[in-house]
Amino acid sequence: MKRLFLLMFLLLSGCTVNQNTYENIEESTSQTGTIQSRNNLEENVMRLLLTINEQNYTISLNNSQAAIDFYQMMPLDLTLSDFNQTEKVADLPKSLRIDGSPSGAAAQSGQLAYYAPWENLAIFYQDFRYGEGLVILGEIDQGADMLRNLNQNVEITFSQLNE
User: What is the mean pLDDT of each run of 10 residues along the chain (163 residues)?
Assistant: First the structure.
């Protein structure tokens, strides 16, 4: 419809139309559609409640396939243990799909990630260099620094946050 309107406008105004005009219209429409889709996804952020030692923290997940798979596992009880004085890790009950994810990532403090080679969950309390197979799932909204002070083998619970 936009294409027809623009074509009629150009013809009536005496302008010529070439193939590039059509391609620009299609590209513009495609980009607009993508932007609208991203905005809709941001409004529908998947949020989790993480409970550790009776304290609650919220997590915002991204829209990756791995994050969606993780979100669908809720509720989930896990045991975290410290790894390399950088992150807390836990085994997941099943693997997450990583279709469309980058082949690796660097993690920042507060980020939640999936390490595909070991099929485990990692919550970082220190920044970490690029790791092949590391897929970022989301991040703790506030209070990630509490992770460094947790005892080894602490029980945690994830649940979907319904706002």
Answer: 39 42 36 37 79 95 97 97 94 96 96 97 96 98 86 92 76
- The type of residue at 161 is L
Let me know: does 131 contact 100? Beta carbons within 8 Å: no
Q: Helix-strand-coil percent breakdown of the chain, rounded to 5?
A: 30, 35, 35
Cβ proximity of 121 and 89 under 8 Å: yes
DSSP 150: P
Distance between CA atoms of 1 and 12, rounded to whole angstroms?
A: 17
> Which residues face 56 on adjacent strands?
51
145 secondary structure, DSSP code: G
The domain spans of the chain are 2-43, 46-160
- Topology of the domain comprising 46-160: Cyclophilin (2.40.100)
pLDDT of residue 152: 78
Nearest to 112 by CA among 130, 82, 133, 89: 89
Model pLDDT, residue 162: 76
